[in-house]
Write a structure and sequence with these properties.
Shape: globular
Number of helices: 9
Distance between the termini: 75 Å
Number of strands: 19
Strand content: 15-25%
Radius of gyration: 24 Å
């Protein structure tokens, strides 16, 4: 009987061990790390070791900011309320010092390397790696006479690019936002998987995607001293305008020429697009509308319109952007797609400004697409959805779809 009882206990223990826990390690974890963990409701468990700390606080940038609880073994733990699906940046404050969680990979956002946790979106596979042909993401360096420096970019090449040696491809220039860099669209946005899946399903034209570093300073220009200068100050505004102008010249005088000479591109304006998120959307509007000889597809993801949106004023079709909106028929003939997007939960100033721009474009009879991402903030889940809607509309024959 004793042997039977032991056997029953062992079987019971084995069965219990086979029952999967509801919480699972996040896909952003480093190899072998069990935490952070995420459950099906979107709750996140975080556990870090800091035995000598007196106070540890968890800081999700677009979510809860809560104290963690110290356990007898020296670990600090917390379980968050449910978070919305998507990628969430966070840091830890240990006795006043802001640090990253060493259990996760680092992602460059908010001008620094930060931790992040991925909360899956139920039923969504469009930004996940799938069993389809995959493109390649290559790192490139190009020299810019504008900045007098070597500059870095990532380039997505569609599946089987190297085997299709006689084929040329259209190009999308896709920009990151403020506080991020050229790695964001791949590491945080999963743009390569989005394109892979769209191309495999036949919903998207195979294309090259160029993701460049969005900050630029002219060769020989002294960095401005902005110490104590608030956002919106004349000094800050001039610095932003100088950077935007330098980046515009870098794209139009250096980057495009490098890409067209290095890769098999279709190098006419009808096969060249530009889009960007937040700051990248503002850069896109400035660059493309000043250079309609180079671009015919335009996308602003939570950032179209620049100061026209943030400045709370009406669009003047005859004067804004050098009057490109003055003649709707001429604009429609030149621009195959003008696309605007915003999340329904974005900061009110951004959302209201983009809704106004949408209304002003309608009043001016400017053909465009306006997309709202339901339930998302100024965050990567909004911009993943934007790219999913935007990319299939590019490089179509006839009118923009």
């Amino acid at each position: 009987m004793k042997i039977i009882s032991i056997a029953i206990m062992l079987v019971a223990s084995f069965c219990c061990a086979q029952v999967p826990e509801e919480f699972k390690p996040s896909s952003t974890n480093v190899w072998g790390a069990e935490y952070p963990r995420v459950d099906s409701a979107g709750r996140v468990e975080i556990r870090i070791k800091a035995p000598d700390a007196n106070k540890v606080k968890l800081n999700f940038w677009s979510g809860p900011k809560v104290d963690m609880m110290k356990q007898p073994d020296g670990f600090w733990t917390v379980t968050t309320p449910p978070l919305v699906p998507g990628l969430h940046y966070y840091t830890l404050t240990i006795d006043g010092a802001e640090v990253s969680d060493l259990n996760t990979h680092a992602f460059f956002g908010g001008t620094k390397e930060a931790s992040a946790v991925e909360v899956p979106e139920p039923g969504s596979t469009y930004y996940s790696i799938q069993d389809v042909p995959h493109g390649q993401v290559r790192e490139v360096w190009y020299h810019s006479k504008v900045t007098g420096t070597w500059r870095h970019a990532l380039v997505y090449l569609p599946p089987n690019y190297d085997a299709r040696t006689t084929e040329r491809f259209p190009v999308l220039y896709l920009q990151h936002g403020a506080g991020e860099d050229e790695t964001g669209w791949i590491r945080q946005g999963n743009a390569n998987f989005i394109l892979d899946n769209l191309i495999a399903s036949g919903n998207c034209t195979p294309m090259i995607v160029v993701m460049a570093y969005g900050y630029a300073r002219r060769a020989g220009q002294t960095p401005p001293d902005l110490t104590g200068k608030p956002f919106g100050s004349p000094e800050m505004m001039k610095a932003m305008q100088d950077m935007a102008a330098a980046f515009e010249d870098d794209v139009t005088h250096a980057l495009i020429a490098y890409v067209d000479s290095t890769f098999r591109t279709l190098s006419d304006r009808d096969h060249r697009a530009m889009a960007g998120l937040s700051m990248g959307g503002m850069q896109t509007f400035q660059i493309t509308l000043n250079h309609l000889d180079l671009f015919s597809y335009i996308g602003g993801f939570s950032g179209a319109g620049g100061m026209l949106v943030l400045g709370d004023r009406r669009l003047d079709p005859k004067s804004d952007y050098n009057g490109v909106f003055a003649d709707p028929a001429a604009f429609a003939k030149k621009v195959h797609l003008l696309w605007l997007g915003v999340g329904t939960q974005e900061p009110e100033r951004m959302r209201a400004g983009l809704l106004r721009l949408h209304a002003y474009l309608q009043e001016a009879n400017i053909q465009h697409v306006f997309y709202e991402s339901p339930g998302t903030d100024h965050e990567w889940q909004t911009w993943r959805r934007d790219l999913k809607d935007f990319a299939p509309r590019l490089f179509q024959t006839g009118e923009a779809k």
